[in-house]
């Protein structure tokens, strides 16, 4: 008997099944046929929602980026807090991110380093406009002085990549180090 599900439910089911198989078998070794077989559906159903495995993966990653960033975006735009309070909250969120990430194990699995780097870049790209907006608001209020909020937001986000991937320090030390660099950029001071 054919089971009909709402399109968004079915689409999410395909994404979740694909990510499970990508983790188990590897991205390259998983085909759309494998995903359909795991779901016990015809392969054409997967292609109804996604033109290719790459499109399916990109959709899953975009969804995951939004999920991972939702708490950060809320903290960035929480104007009831001072900039320091928001930075402190974002530091706490960064330190706890691994424990709440739905696909953490997939992106940190040995052999998935390139996919993790792609995820990192997508997270930066997603957060830059939010950081830029808040920096511009702070500039307009006279709380900070910047020549270019857009470039500064990009530098803050993309500049963290090397530090955050340096496992010679624990996560708390990396986050504290980045907070000090950001304070230097925004205020010209070190804590």
Concise summary:
This protein is mostly helical and 191 residues long.
Write the layout of secondary structure elements.
Elements: H1 7-25, H2 32-39, H3 43-49, H4 53-76, H5 83-100, H6 104-107, H7 113-140, H8 149-164, H9 171-187
Helix pairs in contact: 1-2, 1-4, 2-3, 4-5, 4-7, 5-9, 7-8, 8-9
Strand residue content: under 5%
Flag low-confidence runs: none
Q: Classify the oligomer.
A: single chain
Number of strands: 0
How many alpha or pi helices? 9
Large-scale geometry: elongated
Order of helices and strands: HHHHHHHHH
Structure notes:
It comes from Clostridium oryzae. This is Biofilm operon icaADBC HTH-type negative transcriptional regulator IcaR. InterPro entries: Homeodomain-like_sf (IPR009057), HTH-type_Tx_Regulator (IPR050624), HTH_TetR (IPR001647). The chain has 191 residues and is mainly alpha-helical. The protein folds into two domains: 7-50, Arc Repressor Mutant, subunit A (Orthogonal Bundle); 55-187, Tetracycline Repressor, domain 2, CATH 1.10.357. The protein is 74% helix and 0% strand. It is built from nine helices and no strands. The protein has helices spanning 7-25, 32-39, 43-49, 53-76, 83-100, 104-107, 113-140, 149-164, 171-187. The longest helix is centred in the middle third of the chain and has 28 residues, at 113-140. The radius of gyration is 20 Å and the shape is elongated. The mean pLDDT is 90.
